[in-house]
Design goal:
Length: 588
């Protein structure tokens, strides 16, 4: 591998270069002013819609006719990640008569992707934009990125290269096949090659931070990015590397609030570093409005919003004027989204589990429901299968939005996780049995908006049935409706909430292959205290889940099934808000 000459640059040049390569990773409550945002964020509530909407308005005004932002691939990728974090329809972003963002990315891909850092970042942005990562202007980005692997999971000798390679592969969900082809096991159950996280930890410096390149010196931006890559690879919350990184980030807090680029260069916060820092704190599973991250009475939200100026743009620092890069990097932080950014419409990749195999992952909550899918090859013959999911103890309101469901080969829910322990870990367990063999689907979900929860999942009872002399004990099954009503046209109902999840089920028959179907849910009440636990999901006969997404209209969720296959689909309306009943109308 070629060695780069060691260069000396000014802090401003170094910061600009690092920010171009980095790029951190829905919406929540409405607000009437920026001042209100600080007050409510300090109270622990999500950051508000108005600042994000104003920032997006400014970004839209900066797009040029070739589809780019500032004529720069790096800036355009930052904006792409921001749009995905804000659940924007990226395909609609173009000037009158001009090219789209996607057009520009595809046209420039070959020239931009020249190493692990640029290829990994481009791959992450391509996935966020909903493009095919295996054909970006004829370029297979996943294959190119995997070509940088040294066989031990190290993609680069720099933090930026290693972190972006891990985030790119995680976004594409393709690294599992690479690891298995080399006879490796995925690190902590994630699709990242086994040695990737170890290689990134090896680049951590003595002060607990990471530097973008050798000799550059540690900084908060690169450290926050490395944190997201490690957490995305399944590194557990108690890992010493994360604890050292946390201590380093706290040392980079400005006395007046917010994050500095590096304390060795001064104590003035900037918007880019504060946005990255917010994402690093979220990756650690902590609240950016918490006391640990507040200085001089200003939370990280207060500090970040203080950089927003009239017109919606963010300044790099106060008095410096509108800054495209600072604005783009502020949006994912405002949306409480960490890397890798995925589009709301992107279906999760299902992972096939093996008997007794413990898999780990982190699921960042979404108001419409974030989910991870696991496939269980169930042998039938009445054998009991169990699924156990454990996560570190957290606030009860957060844990109420986390859990899992189990569906059989016909797409019918056969049960969900019941709490068996609350300390030191929160443990959910399911046990069930059936005479019919088939592939069961486990759906782990997190409705706690912007809150990352790490978890471990283990399944048993998947192997060949053992010979027994005594009858097999079949676990009691949750009561199932004798007949699931068909969703023909419009149905209405009322659903009383339950902390473990209350559901109304409907059968949606699709007669022919290739149909484009839209399912719409309208419900009330819809307010910040309830909407995070209300919504619906459509399950295909194969078990693939399509969640209903917010449309921007209060009390409305929509799921689009493009070119659906024929068969009976299951529509599951849910209410996880205890002691609250919703009235709803479901149509297609």
């Amino acid at each position: 591998m070629c060695q780069r000459p060691r260069v000396v640059v000014t802090v401003l040049t170094l910061l600009a270069f690092v920010l171009m390569l980095l790029g951190p990773s829905a919406s929540a409550l409405a607000q009437s002013s920026v001042e209100d945002a600080g007050d409510r964020a300090t109270a622990g509530q999500p950051v508000l819609d108005r600042p994000s909407a104003d920032a997006l308005s400014y970004l839209r005004s900066q797009q040029t006719s070739d589809g780019s932002f500032g004529g720069s691939v790096a800036n355009t990728l930052e904006v792409t990640l921001a749009l995905a974090a804000a659940d924007e329809d990226i395909s609609s972003w173009r000037t009158d008569g001009g090219r789209s963002v996607s057009d520009y990315i595809v046209a420039q891909a070959g020239q931009y992707a020249v190493d692990a850092a640029s290829t990994g970042k481009l791959l992450a942005a391509v996935v966020a934009a909903g493009l095919d990562p295996h054909d970006v202007g004829g370029l297979d980005l996943e294959q190119q990125l995997c070509g940088y692997d040294d066989g031990q999971g190290a993609f680069s000798t720099t933090t930026l290269g290693q972190a972006w390679a891990m985030l790119g592969l995680s976004a594409a969900g393709q690294a599992t096949g690479l690891a298995q082809a080399k006879g490796q096991r995925p690190f902590a159950g994630s699709p990242i090659p086994a040695g990737a996280a170890l290689a990134l930890v090896a680049l951590q410096q003595a002060d607990g931070g990471w530097e973008g390149g050798p000799g550059w010196g540690t900084d908060s931006n690169t450290t926050a990015l490395a944190l997201q890559a490690l957490v995305g690879a399944g590194v557990p919350a108690g890992d010493p590397a994360l604890a050292r990184a946390r201590a380093y980030l706290q040392a980079q807090l400005a006395p007046a609030g917010g994050f500095v680029y590096s304390a060795q260069f001064g104590d003035a916060a900037d918007a880019n570093s504060t946005a990255y820092g917010v994402q690093g704190v979220l990756a650690l599973g902590e609240d950016p409005a918490g006391d640990a991250w507040t200085r001089s009475g200003r939370s990280l939200w207060d500090a970040l919003l203080a950089f927003q100026i009239e017109g919606g743009a963010f300044e790099w620092q106060s008095g410096k004027g509108a800054n495209l890069l600072a604005t783009a990097q502020a949006v994912p932080a405002l949306a409480r989204v960490t890397h890798p950014v995925r589009t709301a419409q992107a279906a999760p990749v299902a992972v096939t589990m093996q008997e007794g195999e413990a898999l780990s992952d982190t699921l960042v909550g979404r108001r419409a429901g974030a989910q991870a899918l696991y496939l269980l090859p169930y042998p039938g013959d009445g054998r009991e299968a169990t699924v156990e999911v454990s996560t570190p103890a957290a606030h009860p309101l957060v844990l109420a939005a986390f859990g899992f469901n189990v569906y059989n080969q016909s797409g019918e829910r056969v049960g969900g996780g019941s709490v068996t322990a609350t300390s030191p870990e929160h443990v959910l367990r399911f046990a069930g049995a059936s005479d019919a063999p088939g592939e069961w689907t486990v759906q782990v979900y997190n409705y706690a908006e912007g809150t990352p929860l790490s978890y471990r999942i283990v399944a048993t009872g998947l192997g060949a049935k053992e010979e027994v002399t005594a009858p097999t004990v079949v676990a009691e099954q949750p009561p199932q409706p004798e007949e699931v009503p068909s969703l023909d046209g419009v149905v209405t109902g009322t659903l009383a909430g339950d902390r473990a999840g209350a559901h109304a089920r409907f059968r949606l028959p699709i007669a022919t292959d290739g149909e484009d179907v839209t399912v719409r849910l309208r419900f009330s009440p819809d307010d910040p205290a309830t909407s995070a636990g209300l919504g619906f999901t459509v399950y295909a006969p194969s078990g693939v889940a399509v969640p209903g997404e917010p449309t921007g209209v209060p009390g409305e969720r929509v799921a689009h099934l493009a070119a659906a296959s024929a068969g009976d689909y299951l529509v599951l309306v849910h209410n996880y808000v205890p002691s609250t009943s919703i009235s709803y109308t479901l149509s297609h």
